Amino acid sequence: MTRFGKGCYILCPLLFEGEAYFQWSNVIKYFIQAQDFEVWDIIEDGFMDFPKKKKKRSVNDTKEKLNAKAMHTLLCGLNEDVSKQVST
User: How many domains does the chain have?
Assistant: First the structure.
């Protein structure tokens, strides 16, 4: 039986604790899709880099927000030890 950490709330992803990655990845995929399909697209297509400095808001702001949402959701799904390993 797979063991996931506490955090089974509808607004909180299950924690990945270093084991059973494939089960966790399926759960996190559907969790993210339930939150926002566009965020899942960002994860599948890869993180997008944007210029550091901008003079005014643009269409890219929406994509930047999706990037941030994707990274935040994935990082919230990692326990402290795994998070330290991937944070850099």
Answer: 1
